[in-house]
Specification:
35% of the residues lie in helices and 15% in strands. It is an alpha/beta fold and 301 residues long. The protein binds glutamic acid.
Length: 301
């Protein structure tokens, strides 16, 4: 599928649900640094992909704000940004392939239905517990109307992968997550499917993103294998935590970045990544961090 997989290609993939905040700038800076530090500082490609499929959560005008924020911080993509809403044909084709191969199936279960299925097995979840899909519709729809298509997670060995910061990782997706949604009848294609199709189509060789997405990686690796797509290398960077100890987000009051002084915002992001202070002009500080990043993660290997 990709003709560019041999060239280092990284990406930053924001969802335009709000402007960049201190936490999302860390992910943006890390992925930019990793690409720029590649090949002894000669650099790889760095792309920006706007993950705007979930239109109900996207806020109009935010894409432009994010792109402007990146530009103000000196983080310039090598190609015009892609938008997932323009790429749905690829998701539909991938879904079709999975269905034809018997690796995806229609599901009629509502959230309540899934809860009831667990209750029939005598299992009641805490209010905030992860809901694992019990596989009810593997046996067919029994005349009910499909509301989603799910990936049939193979019940084989756990997925094992090497994260460049966190080391060896593993997850038994069948037990930890169950058959997960690829597409909802009344909604967008799921993030898991879109991200896998796009990373391959754009030749992404290295994914650098926040640690909160780490436990999505095994689902993505399973889909890559099912679709015959290459698996990129992964590096999950530390999260910026809010005062309540949770990931900084709009919900817990992450302030929009103050970009009157972009260098100050970047100093904070660099500190969160364990990088030394960068002095001088914006461009000098960024060049200093590229060298420091190389020493930390050696992205030419
Ligand atoms: N769009 C996702 C987010 O904003 C990031 C996806 C990714 O980097 O894989 O959380």
């Amino acid at each position: 599928m990709s003709t560019q997989a041999r060239v280092y290609t990284g990406r930053f993939a924001p969802s335009p649900t709000g402007p960049l905040h201190a936490g999302s700038l860390v992910a943006a800076l890390a992925s930019w640094l990793d690409a720029r530090a590649w090949n002894d500082g000669h650099g790889g490609r760095w792309l920006v992909r706007i993950e705007d499929l979930d239109t109900a959560r996207c806020v109009p005008g935010t894409t432009e704000t994010i792109l402007q924020q990146l530009q103000t911080c000196g983080l310039h993509p090598d190609e015009p940004p892609e938008h997932q809403t323009n790429r749905t044909t690829g998701y539909a084709q991938a879904l079709q392939r999975l269905r034809e191969a018997g690796q995806a199936y229609p599901c009629a279960c509502s959230r309540r239905g899934i809860e009831n299925a667990w209750a029939r097995l005598g299992i009641v979840h805490d209010r905030h517990a992860e809901r694992i899909y019990p596989g009810t519709c593997r046996a067919g729809l029994q005349g009910r109307r499909a509301v989603a298509v799910r990936y049939l997670v193979p019940d084989t060995a756990p997925v094992i992968w090497q994260d460049r910061r966190l080391g060896m990782q593993q997850q038994d997706v069948a037990r930890a997550v169950g058959d997960f949604v690829l597409h909802r009848a009344d909604g967008p294609y799921a993030y898991q499917l879109a991200v896998v199709v796009d990373d391959a189509a754009q030749g992404v060789s290295h994914v650098v993103r926040g640690e909160d997405l780490c436990d999505n990686t095994p689902r993505q690796i399973l889909l890559q294998k099912a679709l015959g797509l290459p698996t990129p290398q992964y590096l999950h960077v530390p999260l910026v935590l809010a005062a309540d100890g949770h990931k900084l987000s709009k919900q817990n009051g992450a302030a929009a970045l103050d970009l009157a002084d972009p260098l100050a915002a970047l100093q904070h992001a660099a500190a969160a990544l364990g990088l030394p202070r960068g002095e001088g002009l914006l461009a000098d500080a960024l060049a200093h961090w590229v060298r420091a990043w190389r020493a930390l993660y050696n992205p030419a290997l």
